[in-house]
Every structure is written in structure tokens, then in C-alpha cells.
Design goal:
This protein is mainly alpha-helical. It has two domains: about 55 residues, Arc Repressor Mutant, subunit A (Orthogonal Bundle), CATH 1.10.10; about 140 residues, Tetracycline Repressor, domain 2 (Orthogonal Bundle). Helices cover about 70% and strands about 0% of the residues. The chain contains nine helices and no strands. α4 packs across α6 and α8 packs antiparallel against α9. The longest helix is centred in the middle third of the chain and has 27 residues.
């Protein structure tokens, strides 16, 4: 009995690239960036590894691009949820609530993958730094606006923005191994941020 893989249907190059990219993103969300190998992506698409290699000759490029596409989509979703017209305090409250609501845990785990795999994948490390800067700039803009309007008291809002994501990222890592409850992790982030901005306890609770 033959075990040879059936020949994949011929598709236009653009269609095949789109198919491979979608498969890579879904595989990353399901199993992490470490699953993005020639064999893994090919199995997800249902084609031979050589066909994936033809369209994606560098797996490092594919890993970095897949990570960037997924985390940038998350950034766009969060930015839309936060909005622009509300007060800085309302926007910051929405930002923290959206980041910690647990609906983006699959993307959060990709950050942990990127920091680990980035030690040996320079393109992935560069992508992680780029998107970390993107998030920092967004949060820092809200904080600077809040300081200017007198809603927050923070001599260095850019540093507070760094602290925010240090807390968000570390508590996301906690969640990967079920360390502390979700409520405890959320309280840690909110309480620390309120203290840094001289806000009364509970002010950033929706």
C-alpha cells in the first residue's frame, strides 16, 4: 500500500503564499512560534515541505513575519477598544482592562516565545523590540496626556509606561504556569499603576 502524499493541487503563487501565511499564523496561535518549522507548516497546509521551502526559503523570516502580523493585529484591536475621545484616565482604565481580560492569552504566549527564541533568531528579536516600542509609545502618550491635564502625577510618564508593560508581561508569564489567580495578577498591575500615578485605590477599576 502506497504512503506517498497526494500531489497538492496547483495554485497561483499569490494564493499559495496567502495559504502558507494563514497556516503559519494559525499554527503559531495553536502551538506557539516553536512549531513554525518547514514540516509543521507543510503539515498544516497539507503539502510537501519542499513546496513551503519554495515560497518561504527562510524560516527565520517566516517566524518573524508571523509574529509581527499577529501582535500588530492585537495592537490594532486594543487601540480600537481603548478609543481616543475619552479622558486619559478612562483610556488607561480601558487599556489595562483590555490587556488583562484573558481573551488574548494565545497572543500573549507568543511574546514569551519571541523573547526566548529571539536569543537565537535575530530577526525575531528585532521584531519583538519594534512592537514593544509600539506598545510603549501608545501607553506613554496616554500617560503624558493625563499628566498634562492634571489627572496623573508622574514626573517620568515614559518610565511608568515601561513599568506597566513590565507588569503586564510578567503577569502574563505567571499565567502560563498558573501562578497566582487571574484576579491577583490583575490587582497587582492595577494597584502598582495607581500608586505610580498617585491615583486613589480602585481608580483604574472599570
Amino acid at each position: 500500500m502506497s504512503t506517498e502524499r497526494p500531489r497538492a493541487a496547483r495554485k497561483a503563487p499569490a494564493e499559495r503564499r496567502t495559504e502558507i501565511g494563514l497556516a503559519a499564523r494559525n499554527l503559531a496561535l495553536d502551538e506557539g512560534l516553536g512549531a513554525l518549522t518547514l514540516r509543521g507548516v507543510a503539515a498544516r497546509v497539507g503539502v510537501a515541505s519542499g513546496l513551503v521551502a519554495h515560497y518561504e526559503p527562510s524560516m527565520e523570516v517566516l517566524v518573524a513575519r508571523t509574529f509581527s502580523e499577529l501582535v500588530h493585529a492585537e495592537f490594532d484591536d486594543v487601540r480600537a477598544a481603548v478609543g481616543e475621545s475619552a479622558s486619559p484616565t478612562s483610556r488607561l482604565t480601558a487599556l489595562v482592562a483590555t490587556l488583562l481580560d484573558g481573551t488574548r492569552d494565545d497572543v500573549s504566549s507568543l511574546w514569551a516565545d519571541a523573547w526566548s527564541l529571539g536569543r537565537s533568531l535575530p530577526l525575531l528579536a528585532a521584531a519583538a523590540r519594534e512592537h514593544m516600542d509600539e506598545w510603549h509609545a501608545f501607553a506613554a502618550g496616554i500617560l503624558r496626556d493625563g499628566v498634562a491635564r492634571g489627572e496623573f502625577r508622574a514626573p517620568e510618564p515614559d518610565v511608568v509606561a515601561l513599568q506597566l508593560f513590565a507588569l503586564v508581561d510578567s503577569t502574563a508569564a505567571y499565567s502560563l504556569v498558573d501562578y497566582r489567580t487571574g484576579r491577583e495578577r490583575t490587582h497587582l498591575v492595577r494597584q502598582s499603576l495607581e500608586s505610580s500615578l498617585a491615583l486613589p485605590p480602585g481608580r483604574l477599576t472599570p
